[in-house]
Amino acid sequence: MDPALALQRAERRALSFLLAALAIFVATLFLPEHFVTGWIRAAAEAAMVGGLADWFAVEALFRRIPIPGLARHTNILIRKKDALGDGLARFVREKFLDTPSVVRLIRQQNPADAVTHWLGSYENTRQLSAVLVKVASGVLDVMDERNVQVFIRRALDTMIDRLDLSQSAAAILDTLTRDGRHQALLDETLDYLVELLNEPQTREFISARIVDWLKSDHPKKEKVLPSEWIGNKGSDMISAAVTRLLAQMEADESHQLRQAFDRAVAGLIERLKHDADFQAKLDAFKTQLKGDTALNAYVSGLWNEWRSWVKRDLARDDSVIGARIIGAAAWMGQELARSESLRKALDAQLLDAAERMAPGFSDFVTEHIRATVHGWNAEHLSQQIRLSVGQDLQYIRINGTLVGGLIGAVLYLIAQAPVLLARGH
Questions:
Q1: Coil vs helix vs strand at 80
Q2: Contact yes or no for 338/107 (Cβ under 8 A)
Q3: Is residue 99 part of a domain?
Q4: Where would you find the membrane-spanning parts of this chain (predicted)?
């Protein structure tokens, strides 16, 4: 039934009880004076008083009643709407969102066990994955590509701006050269070069380069010389000489080339730290890097490829991302089920987080309730409350009429008791 129509019927029903009391009262005025007549009249009179008092109490909640001296205490919901919102917000904060209540609720619910049990069901993890996949897909659909590209470029530029190439490189080289670590790296490099020079492919490459040199720079001599033999022998000689030099460097820690390497590294570190011209060149490189079209296009291309792959994957029934989510959730559930200490740690973390976050969360919810109620239209709010609870309030009027009549009848009997007792004597 329509709430407004149901309310009207309830109001008419309550009014009918009041009118019935009025009719009985009026009827007794024309009846001969008698004990019973007086008793009925007293009950009807009290019923009218009770019904009218409760009518006033109910109506005063929702509208202004122009009775001198009392009017300013009516229309309560509209006049006190903001105060009611403040009281509701304060009640919720003090009774539901205070820190002890929140902590007690978390402790009673034992959230770690609940999470463990929930994640132990494949159906739950599948539903979780479906929700997260849907959310991720929706986020990708609503994202503005142009804004994303601008954000990526700005983020890249910011990262490059914050990167101090000279000092960072100097710090890295300082770390690498501390306690002679760079010499160990040089030894590894020397071993690799020796192995490379001893490989047949390397010697064939050197031999081919020698032959090419003879043909380009000495074409006439090359025709009468055994070019292939010279190339092979030259390759062997070069490989042997370089291998011997590298072996000497590796065996002698004070070798002059090692010392030259030390000086070169130390000089580079010094230039990175203190050479303004060198630092300016690195800064210019950063500026060039930020404006590099190829780099920006490459980064944008990576984003587009990643986004396209994710969207295609999320649209598939056998989504890789979805399967990963299910696997991660199941693994988490298994780990929680296996480790009691992990569950206790999770509960402890949640309790600690609740203690720290409850005051701020309480203030946020309280302010949200207060601001929401303040923003409501007072008359609309009053009407909605009336439609919601108005029928029950009409029963209050009916009860007031009946209870008032009953009390009036009892009081009349008490008042007439001396007369009745006197007649009895």
A1: coil
A2: no
A3: no
A4: 14-32, 395-415
State which H helix or E strand residue 343 sits in: helix 340-375
Residue 377 and residue 262: Cα distance in Å, rounded? 81
CB atoms within 10 A of CB 81: 18
Residue 388: burial class (beta carbons within 10 Å; 0-12, 13-18, 19+): exposed
The tokens for 419 are 């007369």
pLDDT confidence of residue 50: 92
Q: Residue ranges of the alpha helices (H) in 252-339?
A: 256-274, 276-290, 293-315, 320-338
Residue 113's Cβ-count burial label (10 Å; 0-12, 13-18, 19+) is: middle
Task: Kindly compute the dihedral angle of the four CA atoms of residues 366, 372, 375, 381, in this order, to the nearest 10 degrees.
Answer: -110
Quick one: angle between helices 81-95 and 378-424, nearest 10? 90
Closest CA to 36 of 416, 425, 421, 424: 416
Is 102 within a domain? no
Virtual torsion, Cα 260, 261, 263, 267, nearest 10 deg: 130
Nearest-angstrom CA–CA distance, 354 and 286: 46
Cα distances from 249 to residues 254, 263, 285, in angstroms, run: 8, 15, 35
Give me the helix-helix angle, 340-375 and 111-119, nearest 10°: 100
Distance separating the N- and C-terminal Cα atoms of the chain: 61
Give me the pLDDT at residue 222, please. Answer: 65
What per-residue confidence (pLDDT) applies to 163?
A: 66
| Total of domains in the chain | 1
As given in the structure block, the two tokens for residue 98 are 């205070």
Look-up of token digits 């404006």: 291
How many Cβ atoms sit within 10 Å of the Cβ of residue 144?
A: 9
CA distance 344 to 327: 23
User: What's residue 27's pLDDT?
Assistant: 93
| Residue 368 covered by a domain | no
Domain hosting residue 27, numbered range: 3-74+377-423
| pTM of the shown model | 0.49
8 Å CB contact between 335 and 342: yes
414 assigned to some structural domain: yes
Would you say how long the chain is, in residues?
425
Specify burial of residue 137 (Cβ count, 10 A radius: 0-12, 13-18, 19+).
middle
